[in-house]
Hints:
By secondary structure, the chain is mainly β. It has helices spanning 135-141, 143-147, 243-251; strands at residues 26-35, 41-50, 57-63, 69-76, 85-90, 96-100, 105-111, 119-124, 152-158, 163-177, 180-189, 200-205, 211-217, 229-233, 239-241. It has a 15-stranded antiparallel sheet that branches. The chain is globular, with a radius of gyration of 17 Å.
Amino acid sequence: MRHPPVPTAACLLLVLCPLPGMAQSIQRQEGRAYAAAGSTLLYRESHWVQGPPEAQSRLVLYRCADGRPFARKWMTPQGSPQTPDFTLEDGRDGYQEGVRGNGTARTVYTRASAEAAPVNRTLDVPPDAVVDAGFDAAVRGHWASLRDGKAVAFQFLLPSRQRLVPLKLQRTAAVTWQGQPAQQLQMKLDAWFGFAVPAVTLVYANADQRLLQFSGTGNVRDSAGRYPQVRVEFPSGPVAASAAELATARVQPLVKTCSS
């Protein structure tokens, strides 16, 4: 069976903009995705987060360079903070993927296009595994070990493969990113699984463990259906947002193409 192009498991964390310490208020943060080499803007990300770190809901709109939304991801608490439910839909072709269920038995599903039938699989997802934006909770939970240079191993749920894959995360350097003291981390597959993916580099702020930059294989496909190498930056911290703004973002129509 031939599998579709696979983004690095880490790139699914591009729903990541950690907002620790948040109460029930709604906050929004903006990100920009550039081509890995250079300054070409590929797409934008708008994140809305509501709830405390242990039970966050998160909405992400992926936007064309001109601001029009083409994909949406919705994440809701389920199980441990590291294993939320989520659903992603790409309005350009109707591609979907997600995770849902109670307890450790979770349904992982994908849909290749609007015309295709969903493909489902039930997996045992332990509380210490990582699902999508649950990566934030994993980083915060192991921050002290990472700062000390210790490697952290975990199982990451990769919906496109409908399986858990072993990843290893480790600090590589202390850096200053746009004037902010930060830690540079590297994440890579911890074993060979029949497909090769490049390592992912992440930069997290020292002050609040907020993701500042991601460099690696993106989780949003290009017009040819491939997952490009990207650099996603989150230079500004979160700002307050209204319930009305979040409600509008949840139902805003998705465009079928980013072309003018």
